[in-house]
Amino acid sequence: MKAARILGSLSAKIGLVLLVLYVLNAEQRLISGIQLQLEWPPYEQHEITRVEQRFTRLRALLPPHGRVGFVSDTVRSGLGGQYVLTLARYALAPLTVEEGAACCVWVVGYFAAGAVAVDASFDDAATRASLQVVHDFGDGVVLLRNPQIAPGG
């Protein structure tokens, strides 16, 4: 009887130790995940301000509301590209910014590599050939017009 009680007590202690180790491991994983999210994306702290400044002159030529397309040499580069698209949506609000050039009359180009990347940023060469450069603001920001889309369409 005494042996059974000792064995039961030992099993309870082992179970408690395993439970504590499991909780500590889960807590460590949670903290690591939070740190990873805080470190992503690996951009400067003031990236939003920089993007807003790059779009300041562009905003003056865009309509106050509606939709614009967005093309970039970074959009198709994974999460970093989606981050740039999200920054553009934030900086150009209340405009609706849609990825691609086929949706809208006005298309915003945002090219990290400058104007050289404009031609390389389109899957469809016909779409690129049809777009007209309205204004090159420098620093990789370009306003394009898609004449195949009727204004207001």
Outline of this structure?
Helices cover 48% and strands 18% of the residues. With 153 residues, it is of the alpha/beta class.
Features:
4 helices; 48% helix; 18% strand; alpha/beta; 2 domains; 153 residues
Describe the protein in words.
With 153 residues, this protein is of the alpha/beta class. The chain folds into two domains: 1-39; 47-145, no CATH class. The chain is 48% helix and 18% strand. The protein has four helices and five strands, in the order ααβαββαββ. The chain has a five-stranded mixed β-sheet with strand order 2-1-3-5-4. Strand 4 and strand 5 (141-145) form a beta hairpin. Helix 2 packs across helix 3 (79-92). The protein is rod-shaped and about 90 Å long. The N and C termini lie far apart (86 Å).
* Helix/strand class: alpha/beta
Largest sheet: 5 strands, mixed
Q: Based on DSSP secondary structure assignment, what is the total number of beta strands?
A: 5
* Whole-number mean pLDDT: 75
Shape category: rod-shaped
Strand content: 15-25%
SSE ordering? HHEHEEHEE
Order of neighbouring strands in the sheet with most strands: 2-1-3-5-4
Uncertain segments = none
Radius of gyration computed on alpha carbons: 26 Å
How many domains, as an integer? 2
Number of helices: 4
Tell me the distance between the termini. 86 Å
Helix fraction?
40-55%
